[in-house]
Amino acid sequence: MQRELGMDLVQSGFLLASVQMAGMLLGLCIGLISEKIGLRRCILIGLGILSVSSLLGSFFQQGTLVLLGRIVEGCGFLMVVLPIPALIKRITDAARLSRIMGLWGCYMPAGAVLMLWAGAAWLAVGSWRTLWLVLGMLTLIVMVLTFLLVPPDSKTQTKGAAQQASSHRWPNLLRTTLSSSRVWLLALAFGVYAAQWAAVVGFMPTIYNQAEIAIGTGGLLTALIAAGNVVGNLGAGRFLHAGILPHRLLQAGYLGMIVCAVLAFGLTQSLTIQFVAILLFSIVGGLIPATLFFLAVTAAPSPETTSTSVGWVQQCSSLGQFVGPPVVAWVVHTLGGWQWAWIATVSFAVVGLVIAWSLSRLGLPKG
């Protein structure tokens, strides 16, 4: 896509991140809307937007139109992923919530694994445009399955809870959410994590391409890195269930990402060592999103602000995913090579460590 649309490295970083623009601007707003129109209905609308945007985007010929289409696609993405944690909380036994949130935390790396593996195989015989057509059709199928299999909102929310939620005005929900220091810290923690992971995993195919590794091989290696994040997320769910304190898992995740990023980019020229280091970067980093998803639904200021709290966390996560790739690309471009990428990622991780320490002083729920 970079070659076909005539983009440089920084512009391709924005293409990679543009899908997050809607989340960066509208996360809190969609959190409010999802409670108003119903969580299931919001998910269905989002899947519809994703499907149509993907289908139309495959026909665009200009980079600007592709970027705009990706922004619209981001709106659909947000309407899908934002209501799901609140819906999980409604239908899941409290004793199992930490483990289920560990499973939910895998959605992004699991999707990346599928795209990087199957997508690379597809690109060996087809184009990115036909790939987007296939993804649009698959999303449409998921929308139909969601309509058939997910119970209506009236069956997942008690009458009393529905009346109580409807009695709260949006300004009150916003005020309660944004006045919580815990919600702010959780949101910022997710942002600095997402900035690192999105940049490193998103640019791995570019790094392998510059090293003259075949597209299929590069896609498979990057898919394995994304799969490592799934392992970390599942592990976080089990650790929380076993009683390990959430801030300890956050600290371990950020520290691990620092060590692995320095090793991968700053201390080695070997592609083999770099691959192992980035794989470990993804695994230990996976401790962070599952822990933060669990805290977002359990540490919300009130039950009525669960969706808005998750919305604000998702908004800052999207901000991180939007900022991360261009920042890393700018550092690499300015300093003259990928060996300097660790400067950007380590800076994000250090901020995460400070946030984890601050959260430990506020007191957090246990798994």
Automatic annotation (TrEMBL):
GO cellular component: plasma membrane
Name of the featured protein: Major facilitator superfamily (MFS) profile domain-containing protein
Domain annotation Major facilitator superfamily (MFS) profile: ranges: 1-364
Alphabetic keyword roster: Cell membrane, Membrane, Transmembrane, Transmembrane helix
Entry-linked Gene3D superfamilies: MFS general substrate transporter like domains
Localisation: Cell membrane
Membrane topology value: Multi-pass membrane protein
